[in-house]
């Protein structure tokens, strides 16, 4: 028996407040299949679904789910089922689920599926429990079958970011795809360059924005390795000079 979703209180985020904006660039374009679509319109809907779930940074040709696309175009599955297929695909799992802890993954998925930010740490914990107990497919199903999703998008509408426009501001909220797909805990596990000097820094002896300083260079340099490189370089130069001298003598 699955654990019931932990209760949490919705916060007063922008998308929960009724608005009367004039349509503009910050207003999302709604894609749905409630009316018969042309081939171009269906392609635009599929592209919108990929951007919502994978975001533009992950929209590569080998991540496409061609079988799901064919089923959607032929009316065998709904838009909601198509979103589910994308969010449970191997590509999505590898790019987003495998490189994050549960809390970070919830922060990624709630905006992509429900079109809004996570309300609070309590909501993040609630969805993390669902993810831990039901796995990725169960977590995605719970999001898609939630009352919030069904009331907002239903079976035929591609999810989209809710109300980016903010009062008294010339620009709306940033798109959700600006959020990095993995956090610092995974980033710190990635292999680093700078093996030559053993500094453990991503850019060798100095950080990306750290100015060069000779005293710092002397202090951080791995001198045994540096001395070994100089010795090898000296031997190569001496060997080259010997070959050149021998060749000159032979010609003479």
Q: TL;DR of this structure?
A:
The protein has helices spanning 39-54, 66-73, 79-87, 90-97, 102-114, 121-144, 147-152, 184-187, 214-220, 223-251. The chain has 252 residues and is mainly alpha-helical.
- The CATH topology of the largest domain corresponds to serine acetyltransferase, domain 1
The structure class reads mainly alpha
Helix content: 40-55%
Number of strands: 0
Poorly predicted runs = 193-203
CATH superfamily of the largest domain: Phycobilisome linker domain
The fraction of residues assigned to DSSP E strands is: under 5%
Q: Mind telling me which CATH architecture of the largest domain this is?
A: Orthogonal Bundle
Defining traits:
elongated; serine acetyltransferase, domain 1; mainly alpha; 252 residues
Task: Describe the structure in your own words.
The protein is built from ten helices and no strands. The protein is an all-alpha fold and 252 residues long. The longest helix is centred in the C-terminal third of the chain and has 29 residues. It is elongated and about 90 Å long.
Question: What is the strand and helix layout of this fold?
Answer:
Blueprint: H1 39-54, H2 66-73, H3 79-87, H4 90-97, H5 102-114, H6 121-144, H7 147-152, H8 184-187, H9 214-220, H10 223-251
Helix pairs in contact: 1-3, 5-6
């Amino acid at each position: 028996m699955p654990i019931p979703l932990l209760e949490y209180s919705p916060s007063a985020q922008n998308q929960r407040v009724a608005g009367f904006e004039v349509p503009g660039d910050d207003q999302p374009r709604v894609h749905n299949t409630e009316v018969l679509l042309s081939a171009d319109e269906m392609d635009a809907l599929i592209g919108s679904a990929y951007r919502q779930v994978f975001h533009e940074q992950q929209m590569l040709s080998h991540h496409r789910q061609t079988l799901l696309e064919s089923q959607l175009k032929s009316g065998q599955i709904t838009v909601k089922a198509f979103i589910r297929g994308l969010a449970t695909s191997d590509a999505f799992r590898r790019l987003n689920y495998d490189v994050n802890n549960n809390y970070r993954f919830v922060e990624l998925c709630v905006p992509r599926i429900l079109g809004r930010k996570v309300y609070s740490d309590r909501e993040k914990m609630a969805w993390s429990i669902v993810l831990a107990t039901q796995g990725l497919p169960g977590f995605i199903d719970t999001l898609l079958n939630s009352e919030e999703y069904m009331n907002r998008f239903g079976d035929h509408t591609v999810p989209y970011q809710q109300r980016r426009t903010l009062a008294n501001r010339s620009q709306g909220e940033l798109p959700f795809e600006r959020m990095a797909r993995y956090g610092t805990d995974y980033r710190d596990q990635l292999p680093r360059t700078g093996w030559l000097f053993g500094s453990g820094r991503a850019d060798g002896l100095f950080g990306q924005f750290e100015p060069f300083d000779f005293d710092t260079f002397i202090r951080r340099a791995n001198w045994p390795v540096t001395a070994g490189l100089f010795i090898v370089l000296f031997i190569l130069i001496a060997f080259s000079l010997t070959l050149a001298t021998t060749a000159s003598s032979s010609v003479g």
